[in-house]
Amino acid sequence: MIRCFIIDDEKAVSGVIQYFIAQENIPIQVAEVVYDGKRGKEILDTDQPHLVFIDIQMPFFNGLELMERFPQHKYIVVTAFDFFQYAHKSLQLGAVDYLLKPIQKDKLLEAIQRALGYKLYRDEITDHIVQILQRDFAQRLTLQAIADRLGYHPAYIARHFKKITGLTIMEQLTKIRMNEAKRRLQNGEDTIQSIAEQCGYRSESGFYRDFKKEFSLTPSMMRSGQEIE
Asked: Tell me: the pLDDT tens digits for 184-206?
């Protein structure tokens, strides 16, 4: 289950976020709700949520100060202030999105999907499968292993997933692995072989094949910023 924090001094806002999450069956657990920057600092310092909804103007510490202090977390900024400098600073600090109050449900869902890096289908089985793939992409995942975790027959989850997403489970896994490989190539210094292993590949040739198919570039070209001819 995806865990999130809400740090906002308006109780009504946290209520709206929680209401939309429940109404849309979004697979997110609201683990902490706090109403000032001081308590926000405490929970960000001691826990590692998948996602943080954060206000800007709050007592003790504002949202931008907390984001600057704890850059390891993923943030969706929720604010009543439509100021360019706030939005610009939020994005500079790595905010995934900048939502204005009152919160619109569709924009909230889009922001959550952007933050998590994958689409939420609002279908319990499908979302659980995607969560497994996203969390454990580096492991050797088989259809049988995924089915065993969920308590369903492999053929059933394969048909169901394809019907909902248009992709096979293994095609979705490859997409997740490729996007993670792209991120690591662009933002890290590990060798291509090491990145292939980190993304669940035992064969470097298989990694190259899938990468070229997904991006029309080799991993080396992606890292150097070179375009394919």
From this structure: 887 777 899 999 999 999 888 99
pLDDT digit string, tens, across residues 76-101? 999 888 888 888 899 888 899 999 99
Element holding 140 (H helix, E strand): none
Q: Residue 30 corresponds to which tokens in the numbers above? A: 């609201």
Name which of 142, 116, 138 is nearest 127 in CA terms.
Answer: 116
Global pTM reads: 0.69
- Here the tokens at position 47 are 């826990």
Tokens standing for 84? 């360019």
Residue of 10, 23, 21 whose CA lies nearest to 102: 10
C-alpha atoms less than 13 angstroms from C-alpha of 173 in its C-beta half-sphere: 22
The 8-class DSSP code of residue 33 comes to E
Helix axes 169-187, 143-150, angle to 10 degrees: 100
